Amino acid sequence: MASFLKRDRIELLAPAGGAEQLKYALHFGADAVYIAGQHFGLRARAGNFTDETLVSSVKFAHEAGKRVFVTINAIMHDEDIEPLGQYVAFLQTAQVDAVILSDLGALQVVVACAPGLEIHVSTQASVTNHATASMWHSLGAKRIVLARELSLSEIADIRSHVPDDLELEVFVHGAMCMSYSGRCLISNYLTQRDANRGHCTQPCRWKYALVEETRPGRSFPIEEDERGTYLMDSCDLCMIEHIDALVDAGVDSLKIEGRAKGAYYVATVVNAYRRALDGGDMAEILPELDRVSHRPYSTGFFFGPAKQTYDDAQYLQTHDLCATVLACESGRLSVRQRNRFFTGDEVEVLSPGVAVRAFTVENLRTEWGELVDIANKATDTYTMDAPFELKHDDILRRKREDEHVKG
């Protein structure tokens, strides 16, 4: 088994689709975050960062001793090359720690226009062997984000053949794509929105049926199922129980997927992996990953051919975010309400690095001191009795009545 000394060197890398997600990723234990600006990323639906918020967020992260990587891993066309040079020069000035790219031309542009930027090679580059990894290294890459289709034994073999200073990163949690390393043309074909340039409409999640051209208006299920058929919908990845195996294989960075996810998702998943890395009680930690919206979990390709599809197209989630903590003083808790909750509700507290605690909402008041039975955004800020000390940016949540949610 991997020692905790080995675990100490592992980076926990979190997604941040906006400044709020970045703040919560760092608060709950991420060592680094990966983000995108307004250009060249692969998650156009995420809020992403303006130039101004990118600069301030990098400063915020660095003050916390954490690092920021920026994705520029869209497939590049000729029209992108000149603005890419200007953009990476800006990223270097903003003191970004690394860029994540998949295009050889983009690497050349970074070396020429922003030689101070560390280069990470995206999973979009589909690096599946040590020769390719070593070639990227010879061109200036510091890290390879390995293809998601590799097994643990293949990763260990790559580690044994590449230079010691070449870092290896793998996805360990989150949504999986049915296409090879995320390189998909379905969205482009069906909706003219190019997944490889950041505009995926996720047609792999759609419900499909068979239509015969001489019978217009009639559709036939491809499998006999009352829900219809979801041919390409994939399980979510979860490797939290196999961190030692990842460490032993020579992985340097554990990457959580989810730049299109909200702050609650990021906080909960990062906190779970941080606690697991730090040797927490897995019996307490594992249920945390059911608290957020997810598809059924699998271990992907790490232990051989993956079981990617599943029987129920619905997402699962046991808890909802209620509020985020603003302050806790003199036995009173001040929170910003995010979803409605009631006096008498039992709420759980998510705090960095500790087991979940619960208490009952009592003496609920608006920011003007009015006693109320419900927090439902009549105002954003509410106060209530605090049974124990909480910290700024801790999270309150409550159990859902229905664990099935829409994606």
Short descriptors:
407 residues; alpha/beta; TIM Barrel; Elongation Factor Tu (Ef-tu), domain 3; 3 domains; 8-stranded parallel beta barrel; 7-stranded antiparallel β-sheet; 11 helices; 23 strands; 25% helix; globular
Mass-distribution shape = globular
Number of domains: 3
| CATH architecture identity of the largest domain | Alpha-Beta Barrel
Q: What strand order characterises the main sheet?
A: 1-2-3-4-5-6-7-11
Radius of gyration: 22 Å
Number of E-type strands: 23
Question: Roughly how many Å apart are the termini?
Answer: 37 Å
Helix vs. strand class: alpha/beta
Helix content: 25-40%
- What is the highest CATH level, the class of the largest domain? Alpha Beta
Query: Biggest β-sheet, characterized?
Result: 8 strands, parallel, barrel
Strand content: 15-25%
User: What's the name of the CATH homologous superfamily of the largest domain?
Assistant: Aldolase class I
Number of helices: 11
* Unreliable residue runs: none
Which fold name is given in CATH as the topology of the largest domain?
TIM Barrel
Notes on the structure:
The chain is α/β, with parallel strands linked by helices and 407 residues long. The chain has helices at residues 4-8, 19-27, 51-63, 78-93, 104-113, 130-138, 152-161, 186-191, 243-248, 263-277, 282-285; strands at residues 11-15, 32-35, 67-71, 98-101, 118-121, 143-145, 167-175, 210-211, 219-220, 236-238, 253-256, 297-298, 315-316, 319-329, 332-337, 341-342, 346-350, 357-360, 365-366, 374-375, 381-385, 395-399, 404-405. 25% of the residues lie in helices and 23% in strands. It is built from 11 helices and 23 strands. α3 links the parallel β2 and β3. It has an 8-stranded parallel barrel, surrounded by 5 helices. The chain has a 7-stranded antiparallel sheet with strand order 18-17-22-14-15-21-19. The protein has a two-stranded antiparallel sheet with strand order 8-9. It folds into 3 domains: 4-176 and 235-314, Aldolase class I (TIM Barrel), CATH 3.20.20.70; 180-220, no CATH class; 319-405, Elongation Factor Tu (Ef-tu), domain 3 (Beta Barrel), CATH 2.40.30. The two termini are 37 Å apart.
